Amino acid sequence: MRIKDLPDENLFVCGHTACPGCGVALSIRNAIRILGKDTSVYVPASCAVVFGSTYPYGAWKVPFFHTAFENTGACLTGMQAAFEKKGKKVISVGFAGDGGTYDIGLQSMSGAAERNDDVLYICVDNEAYMNTGIQRSGGTPFGAWTTTTPVGSKVQGNRTFKKNLGEIVAAHDIPYYATLSIGHPLDFIKKVEKAKDIKGFRFLHMFTPCVPGWKIDPAKTIEVTKRAVESGMWTLYEVENGEKRITHKPGKMKSVKDYLMMQGRFRHMSPEDLKKLQGWVCKKWNLHYKEKGAPEICEIELPEEHHAVTEEHREMHGP
Amino acid sequence: MKKVITGDHAVAIGAKLSRVEVVPAFPITPQTLIIEHIADFVNDGEMDAKFLTMESEHSVMSAAAAAEAAGARVFTATSSQGLAFMHEMLYATAPLRLPVVMVNANRTLGGPPGIWCEYNDSMGVRDSGWLQVYVEDNQEALDMVIQAYRIAEDKRILLPIMPCLDGFVLTHTVEPVEIPEQQDVDSFLPPYEPDVILDPARPAMIGTFMPAEYIMELRRQTAGAVESAKEVIQEINDDFAKRFGRDYGGLIDAYQMEDAEAALVTMGTVTSTSRQVVDEMRQEGEKVGLIKLRFFRPFPSEELKNALKDTTAVGVLDRSLSFIGGGQAFNEVRSALYGLSIPIINHLAGLGGRDVTEMQIRKMFELTLRAANGEKVKSVNWHNTRGETV
Q: Does the predicted model carry a pTM greater than 0.80?
């Protein structure tokens, strides 16, 4: 399917109340367009429940179900079992956030993956608990400001690195795991189409910028995802039946600083922290992109000026 | 056909006869035999259901809710810690009007751990919107699973229901049980045909975010459904009695109450023991009677008031404790009898699975009789408990 072949009919329609530039809303709308109307959706506690289904309004033109936070995997299993028992051909698809997948929903997701239930699990990853007002999750990157990893005078931002969820999911030996970005639509379409047709547990991991949570310009959602991929902070690949394949290799590695400085959540980072994060990104880059025998790549551009934590920063990042 | 089987086996047969379509399962003592029997039925081709081996009770109830929302008839079973673990999901299933049937094998909950019968697991979820019925023997366990589907799926009700049976006393004890014929169950229990389900042909949104402007009406509807269940339960009880010859009385069951002065209100298996004691004490000339409190939700306030209004004292036996003094049944019965000027006293016994013997029940009746004769007795009485003198 090419972009121009995408069906015109939206199944997640306008009128929803997501923020302008919301990466989650964009991802949902396009994914569900590709999946089509024979789809039944589960959404756990998240912004997507609020902006897409606040009674008496609803943005979904396919069946929608919601009950709790930590149970996307289990709800998909139950839903799909009923469809199978009734002989209906329906794709059971879940849209869970990073908190609902990396953290509180990990067990339930793992159960559905391990049973290889015939469902499509989509993680819309915006790297923090955004619906409750920007708290750190297992998906939050190193250095990032959140309300539970504030920029203090002693400690600045998140001190741990983003959990490698892809490895965890793929380790379940599922038929399909892929990472996607809304800034790479052709790759996005291909992967959703592929996941649609595969039988068994499929996991699509979507990188979805959050305008208020990342403190970015709403017009820059797409650009920020592109820079994430160019810097190596996000990598586009798929694991099909255990075989890993890079689906989009960026050109020359760009400094992580280009990506970070577009976002208010990273603007406080010290040169030491930037170096630390760049080191982590280089390791990841080498893991994904380095050809056998090729030299390791590590590009570090030290910041031009020292970003001390000032009152001004604290005000900017305040609650 | 009669079979000598455990309560858990009887429950599993009840689920099979009810033509259950999806069974999410997770083991927990003393319920585990139920899901093991169902797994056997499914793998032997005797039962055409999707058996899902979930990874926790929370996921069991999540899968149950989702399967029910997608239009399937769902069965599962749990107990104690498992029920507590799925607590959150119980509060999702009832207001969303998903008529799941889940058997709870009553077992002591929390620390220090134990596996024997106590009601503090199911009593803790009495305000979740689930209907609850407590059974006395293995036959009633089987019959109530079948009746539970008729009650839960009735368009006037559409609420989940929890038949509760005493851990080990029933779950692991064999009794002769009459197994109904499949065609008789089929004619009693029609297939599940809900109006609103997750169906791409008629998309619906179930479980939307609900602002304050709308939620109170929804709560009121759920409360209305619980209230309406009283009539429906009686209707279904009578229909079942007509077809199968076993009448459980509906919400409550009265025994020797016509001229009773002192009455004891019991739930579950202690009712059988109490009936025995009533017979013995009647022979001795004591005017004692028994009310078996079957349904705890809906709570039969009017029925209890009518049944107990002519007594001179009421004792309530609780197998669990509410920390406002006495047990849950005691507090709710006393509330139901508000306005009647008769003493109501509480008997706590059998907590954590301690045996409740005829001798203890006789003491309960004696205490209640003393209250009936105007003597002042304590309102809460711990039986067979160290440090207590009853």
A: yes
